[in-house]
Design a protein that fits this description.
Blueprint (H helix, E strand, L loop, with lengths): L1 E6 L3 E3 L2 E3 L1 H17 L3 E5 L2 H14 L3 E4 L4 H7 L1 E4 L2 E4 L4 H7 L2 H6 L14 H18 L2 E4 L4 E4 L6 E6 L1 H12 L3 H7 L7 E5 L2 E2 L2 E2 L2 E7 L1 H5 L5 E2 L3 E2 L1
Parallel strand pairs: 1-10, 4-5, 4-10
Antiparallel strand pairs: 1-11, 2-3, 6-7, 8-9, 9-13, 11-14, 12-13, 15-16
Helix pairs in contact: 1-2, 3-6, 6-7
Length: 237
């Protein structure tokens, strides 16, 4: 199986939708998928993710299955911190970032959220929720997570190309769970950009699949269409 994680296009957060640029990014994603096809399409229940998936579904005449556990509103309640200027994602807050790369947090590995500095937050429930729902999704696709190993038991052969359109804040927790990389470490060193495409291969090797990231948040479809290849609209590549 090839699994494609696609972040939504350039967004308007209120009301939840895409900007004109985001819609063009979504069309670029669809043209990319049209080259080789996709068998199943999943989307967060948010409008901006659904709008990003829609051109692909229309071109390939596929249905979109909505998954509410991917909706970023849930992750926002669970994985944000309170700062002097309001709430921010924990991976964006400078004080939390310093903690995330500290020896204390790294030594806690998967139980990083037990650190006393995080006692007022709901990090554990958020990570557990995303992990449980992600494991359920992949089991339905034929891969049972062997927790803590970064490997999956192959329940049945699956040669499909499966796409999930979702979000940055949710996606960092989702991908860290999928790969069994502790969330603080993953969120400090990896990121996704608008309409960026992450491709993960699940290769059956004697009944075991070890997911391998073939490309992370790739934006070649953006480049091909002559659209700005800016990381989240502020770093020009």
């Amino acid at each position: 199986m090839l699994f494609f994680f696609v972040r939504h296009g350039d967004p308007v957060y209120n009301p939840d939708s895409l900007t004109p640029l985001g819609k063009r990014q979504a069309e670029a994603v669809a043209k990319r998928f049209a080259l080789y096809g996709v068998d199943r399409i999943f989307s967060s229940t948010s409008q901006r993710a659904y709008e990003t998936a829609l051109p692909t579904a229309e071109i390939l005449k596929k249905e979109i299955t909505k998954l509410d556990f991917c909706n970023e509103n849930h992750a926002w309640r669970e994985l944000t911190v309170q700062t002097e200027t309001g709430r921010r994602w924990c991976f964006q807050d400078k004080d939390t970032r310093k903690l995330f790369v500290s020896e204390d947090i790294l030594n806690l590995r998967d139980e990083w959220y037990t650190h006393p500095a995080f006692k007022e937050y709901d990090f554990k429930n958020g990570i557990d929720r995303i992990r449980e729902e992600s494991d359920k999704l992949f089991k339905e696709l034929g891969y049972e997570h062997i927790k803590g190993t970064g490997a999956y038991k192959v329940l049945f052969e699956n040669n499909e190309r499966v796409a999930l359109f979702a979000h940055q804040g949710f996606g960092l927790a989702f991908l860290s769970s999928l790969l069994d990389i502790p969330y603080p470490r993953f969120s400090m060193h990896f990121d996704t950009t608008h309409s960026g495409m992450t491709v993960i291969e699940f290769k059956n090797e004697d009944g075991i699949a070890i997911p391998k990231v073939l490309t992370l948040s790739n934006d070649s479809h953006i480049y091909r269409e002559g659209l700005p290849t800016n990381y989240n609209n502020y770093v020009r590549f």
